[in-house]
Amino acid sequence: MKKTKSKKRNKNEISLKGDSSGLFLEVMISIAVFLFAITLAGVLAINSMLSNWSDSILGALTVQIMPVNNIDQGKALEETLVHQNKTMEYLLNVEGVEDVKPLEEKQLQKLLQPWLGDSVDLNQLPIPRLLDVKLNKNAKIDFMGLSEKISEISSQASLDSHKLWLSKLIGFADGLRNLALVALSLVFAITSGAIVYATQTSLGLHRYVINILHIMGAKDTYIAKQFSRRTGVIAFIGGALGVAFAIPTIFMISKLSEAIEGGIISEAHLTEYSWAAIASIPVFYTMIAMVTAYYTVKRTLEKTM
Predict the structure, then answer these.
(1) What pTM, to 2 d.p., does this model score?
(2) Residue 281 and residue 183 in one domain
(3) Please, is 226 exposed, middle or buried when counting C-beta atoms within 10 Å of its C-beta (0-12, 13-18, 19+)?
(4) Residue 46 pairs with which residues in a beta bridge?
(5) How far is it, in rounded angstroms, from Cα 200 to Cα 210?
(6) What is the pLDDT of residues 40-89, one digit of tens each?
(7) Do 185 and 114 lie in a common domain?
(8) Are 249 and 217 in contact (CB under 8 A)?
(9) Do residue 35 and residue 115 come from a single domain?
(10) Cβ contacts of 18 within 8 Å, gap of 6 or more
(11) 228 lies in the same domain as 212
């Protein structure tokens, strides 16, 4: 005779499919994941924007040396170069400055050509001298103080003013990122509260079945696992729906920001890792929902049963 091997199957003695709290939780999680994904995309985009600003904008300074007015062009150029050299000598001794290079005549003419046109002889014009100042990666520069000091060193020298308001703009963007992180925490906390509430409601609806299971010898951990699995399925479905609606919304916002050509907002973009993080939100919420439901059931049963 052939022996038949009995296969153990995980059966849910508690029927949770028709539970009204499940639909409530699914809707709550889908909305929460949608908001979470949009906010997370904003945080990641701001991080990218701040990183690009630090590399391309705050990683360098521009100092302008105004030409000295003199009828003798040769003497005027000579005096202008004296101011340039004094400013360069000071900047090279400033903490955080890595290198200082003056722009050559050809580079200056190339910069001015689009504004003045081809018909203007730039050699006949008093062209300001520009110093390209490269900063160390972790340099902390007081732009206002540096601007005042440069003016004292040379009456013809001045720091490019966009550095002053860009430093304030970066502070604003950093504060905006922190607010977004707070919003992420709030969304997460509200979702966890909804999971606890829905789980406790479901426990109340099935209290008679749970009592019978306890009489039959079922442990709290066995019952908690059934609720945890069911909550995990609900969380994954709700999370997938939330991300499915969030991704087109993020693309739409991204397209609108691309319309600002050459603007500082165009520096904000999402990398492949950012999209991977957004796509993994349903898995993250599933794990959190399962753990929250499991311990909610255990604590509730320990207090009431």
Answers:
(1) 0.65
(2) yes
(3) buried
(4) none
(5) 13
(6) 988 888 887 777 666 556 667 788 888 887 666 677 778 888 888 888 88
(7) no
(8) no
(9) no
(10) none
(11) yes
